[in-house]
């Protein structure tokens, strides 16, 4: 897991939402309405802040040279979220709503710009390789916990609450199943991988009609090796399962914050 890529992906997702909101429609029956997208933006910023705090800010707070930046970013995040919350409570956009939105989201851009151009360089310089790996794991796990609570709690819109809960439950089941398979609890690790004999002229890749279970067995890790640390193996498999079921997707148009 590369924490720098995870942070950059979050920033791009947030930027995409900011670009979509001014052009969104409002009203009953509109799936991606302005109100819905603004709620998504609040949830995405909250999840990103919790993840960054767990992954980087908590570690950097141990270093005297980083404490001022850590405190400043935490305070700045609360101010940005407060501005967006007040804007979201405006159910019927009054005159000048878009101008207010531009002002508020400029503060979001500036905040994320500080993440990438101040926080990330400092973390790269101060933290050890081991601490960076720990930060990546804490980042992913914190984001997963936020998603399991379906956003910001009472502040999140309730229109899609059932969908969010269902999606999170599905991801949890998928992750647990993958972890159980890879851990050998379902007998997957003991299934020997088979390399099918290809006919002359047949292309590389699975043969027509090859069972999906054979393909899964071919890519599954083997049984524990003698002397292998069980705890380390479980941690590695858990991290892989979390990363492969990580719900955030790459944005449609990934571009960096430039303001």
Automatic annotation (TrEMBL):
Residues 189-259 are annotated as: Disordered. This is Hemerythrin domain-containing protein. The keyword Phosphoprotein does not apply. The keyword Coiled coil applies. Residues 3-122 form the Hemerythrin-like domain. It comes from Methylobacterium terrae. Keywords: Coiled coil. Residues 56-90 form a coiled coil. InterPro entries: Hemerythrin-like (IPR012312). Residues 196-207, 225-239 have a biased composition (Basic and acidic residues).
